[in-house]
Specification:
By secondary structure, the protein is an all-alpha fold. Helices cover 68% and strands 2% of the residues. The protein is globular, with a radius of gyration of 20 Å.
């Protein structure tokens, strides 16, 4: 318990420094934004997509909690999880929408499908990003059109690349200068690392919002579209451009 108490003292000090040095109110608009897309239920029943947004929201909150307490690389690794989970569920949602989601009866009589098996942790039903997810989704009308003009899939893969170091590498916040081994110790507020996390969060939010709006134009009838436009006016203009260009 002594170590935990020391950790909490340091984490609370970092949280206060974070609140003093960062625009928390604006950051929280992004954190709550994922779930806000589902608030008015403008999309005809799409439970897989809705689960994707709920999951993204839950992980975003966890990432936010970590970053304000100084766990910068752990917070960034969760943003990678947000993107992975959303794209996978979007893939299953699209296959369900077009009637290609394989369904079958279990030996106990329980009905199941590929998506539910994946949600249950069956690795045999885990889709590959390039062979499955991108191959299916990049050819979809408005998504294809947006990508051709604004390089959506390049942005997604660039974000994957940047976040990969927090999953597979050794980020600089995980060791002291000139140290030969990693350390999970947190010591102080670091604006540079917080701002880096914030940029990753905004990128994830934008990618998820773009894909959702292009896939479900009904979202433009949501009350949340006004806030999205305020948060990301340039992204909003790009989407409108795609929707209105023949």
């Amino acid at each position: 318990m002594q170590h935990l108490e020391q950790l909490l003292i340091i984490a609370n000090r970092i949280r206060k420094d974070t609140e003093s040095n960062c625009n928390i109110n604006n950051i929280e608009r992004y954190i709550t934004g994922f779930n806000s897309w589902t608030r008015d239920a403008p999309v005809p029943t799409r439970p897989i997509w809705e689960t994707a947004m709920f999951d993204a929201s839950a992980i975003a909150h966890a990432s936010y909690f970590l970053v304000v307490h100084g766990f910068y690389e752990e917070a960034c690794s969760l943003i990678r999880e947000i993107i992975d989970g959303f794209l996978t569920r979007l893939y299953f949602d699209e296959r369900d929408r077009i009637g290609e989601l394989e369904k079958w009866q279990q030996k106990d009589g329980r009905s199941t499908n590929e998506y539910w098996e994946w949600e249950s942790g069956d690795e045999d039903n885990y889709p590959n990003y390039k062979k499955d997810i991108k191959k299916l989704m990049e050819g979809k009308g408005l998504i294809k059109k947006y990508d051709k003009k604004y390089s959506l899939w390049n942005d997604i893969e660039e974000l994957f690349r940047k976040l990969g170091k927090f999953v597979h590498g050794r980020p600089e916040t995980r060791h002291y200068d000139f140290a030969s081994r990693s350390s999970s110790n947190i010591t102080e507020f670091k604006k540079k690392h917080f701002d880096e996390w914030y940029e990753y969060l905004k990128s994830a939010y934008c990618i998820i919002s773009i894909l959702s709006l292009l896939q479900y134009k009904e979202l433009f009838d949501s009350n949340y579209i006004k806030e999205f436009k305020e948060l990301e006016p340039e992204i909003y203009k790009k989407i409108i451009d795609i929707l209105t260009t023949v």
